[in-house]
Amino acid sequence: EEGNLQEAERGFKELSLLSPKYAGAFYLLGVCMSRRGEYEEALDPLQKAIALLPQFLDPYVELGRVQKELGREEEAEKSFLTVLDNPKASPRVLRMLAYRLMEAGWIEESIAAYTQILHGEEPVYGDWNNRGVAYRRQGDEKQARKDIVQASELDSNRPEAFSNLGRIYVESKSYDLGVSSFLKALEVDPGFLPALLNAAVVYGEYLD
């Protein structure tokens, strides 16, 4: 993977030189640099992408991630909020933003991004499930359970929501319900590792 990133980085550098007004080349160059941990180096191409095409929102999300990694909290928040506050932000960009916000530990903002998605289009399994995870991390068990149940009802052939529901039950000490949810996830996918591990822990520590 490291070799592929190096090749991609070289390619996007060449493309940015050949097409110095192509914002996408600078954005993708910045993404490659940040994925390699070259956060300081990634700032310049991401900022160039934004300067070339301010309405192109993807670079703001990646820039916020890079600024967060560099400990520039206020700058990162400004970059993220530029996307969150933009009424033209697409569901794709908002999903990327919501994930990065949760990754950064800004749970309230991540919930706001997922809520915008859910208000703007037909409900999608992953959006309900992920907002439920965010609510769980925030400590709102009731809303977390509601969202994750909604996800499981939208698509009962995926294990993630059942497994996440199990975690909520376990955290509220409803161990039998937790195991039941983990087993439901394993009915859907017998190899789903989070459910296997969590079921084993509950059986070993609480239901032995």
Characterize the structure shown.
The protein is an all-alpha fold and 208 residues long. Helices cover 78% and strands 0% of the residues. It contains twelve helices and no strands. It has helices at residues 2-18, 23-35, 39-52, 58-69, 73-84, 91-104, 107-120, 125-138, 141-154, 160-171, 175-188, 193-205. The longest helix is centred in the first third of the chain and has 17 residues, at 2-18. The chain is elongated, with a radius of gyration of 20 Å. The protein starts with a helix and ends with a helix.
In brief, what are we looking at here?
With 208 residues, this protein is mostly helical. The chain has helices spanning 2-18, 23-35, 39-52, 58-69, 73-84, 91-104, 107-120, 125-138, 141-154, 160-171, 175-188, 193-205.
Secondary structure: number of strands: 0
Query: What is the ordering of alpha helices and beta strands?
Result: HHHHHHHHHHHH
- The low-confidence runs, each spanning 5 or more residues with pLDDT under 50, are none
| Gross morphology | elongated
Cα(first) to Cα(last) distance is 43 Å
Main beta sheet strand tally, sense and closure: none
- Helix- and strand-based class? mainly alpha
Radius of gyration: 20 Å
* Helix percent band: over 70%
Q: How many H/I helical runs? A: 12
Which whole number gives the mean pLDDT? Answer: 90
Residue share in β-strands: under 5%
